[in-house]
Amino acid sequence: MANVEVESLTRVFETRSRRVLALDNVNLEVEKGEVFGLLGPNGAGKTTLIRILTTLLLPTSGRAVVGGFDVVKEAKKVRGIIGFSSSSERVGFDFVTARRNLWFFSQLYGVPKSEADRRIEELASLLEFQDQLDRKLYMLTTGYKQRLNLARALINDPTVVFFDEPTNGMDVFSAKKVRELFVREARVNSRTVFLATHNMFEAEEICDRVAIIDRGRILAVDTPENLKLTLDKPVVMLETDVAGASVGDPRTLDGVVGGTVKLDSESETANIRVILRDEDYLDKVVTLLERRGVKVLGYQRLEPTLEDVFISKVGAGFAERERSLEV
Ligand SMILES: Nc1ncnc2c1ncn2[C@@H]1O[C@H](COP(=O)(O)OP(=O)(O)O)[C@@H](O)[C@H]1O
Ligand SMILES: [Mg+2]
Predict the structure, then answer these.
(1) Fewer CB atoms < 10 Å away: N or C end of the chain?
(2) Measured from the CB, is residue 13 less than 6 Å from ligand 1?
(3) Any atom of ligand 1 within 6 Å of the Cβ of 87
(4) Higher pLDDT pick, 91 / 37
(5) Do 245 and 202 meet the contact criterion of CB atoms below 8 Å apart?
(6) Ligand 1 pocket residue status of 20, Cβ below 6 Å
């Protein structure tokens, strides 16, 4: 049974100066016990979708059902069976201990008292902050506050739990712990874990399925493995001298589907990552670059990443896409 069903969902934001189509006819189904990732660059529409699914925002048109309840018509029921946490949002009372904060939220959901105590201990142990439980919130480091926030999202034993950029700004070790927790919650407790992220490694590492989103549109939905398999085009990294920066948009090179250019100012080289229409274009691209005065120092065939899947569909990488959205 699908725990999240999204049908022709559209959301428009109108401000005085512009009209943004934040979600454009989105269709999705997420199953019980699935770790599902919404992957896309900043501005793609991820937070908008999560806010609609968590009843914080109304859709412009279309329908969404979470745990069997309609997010508009049965918003209250949806709120009772979901958990939600966002890394860009601070929640809780500063002058109250972490334990009391969690207890407070558990009581909002009507979790029985003994059960609440047990769950607080369990979540603190899983997220490794037991020794912080009796400290006041304002005393906690950012990392511990983030963990507390994640624990809060799980305190009511939710059927579906939503995390918006959960590991943003976390150190590598904490992020790893948190990702392990998500997988555990899906496997052991059969929760649906719905995750928005612009971190492709995160999506690849823990998601059973990933939806790639750009400018409000879902470009593809599948397992990370299948997404990469369907790419079916060679990904090549060309190392060039700094003049590589003057290549501009790699798509202007014949045979290049899309790519990214990264400068390494220390070694004064540039890495041009390109997806080629097929193998035969490699020589041609090298020749074209050299004709433009860009010296190719070496090249290497790479395993595709989820960002390459994105590039193959959009032509540009996450960073270029984010820059193009800045007004
Ligand atoms: N309250 C709002 N008013 C106007 N525009 C908004 C609002 N919220 C989001 N947007 C716009 O909708 C688009 C999608 O934003 P968002 O869902 O936050 O993307 P993401 O979470 O993927 O970074 C962006 O262009 C953003 O500027
Ligand atoms: Mg966001």
Answers:
(1) C
(2) yes
(3) no
(4) 37
(5) no
(6) yes
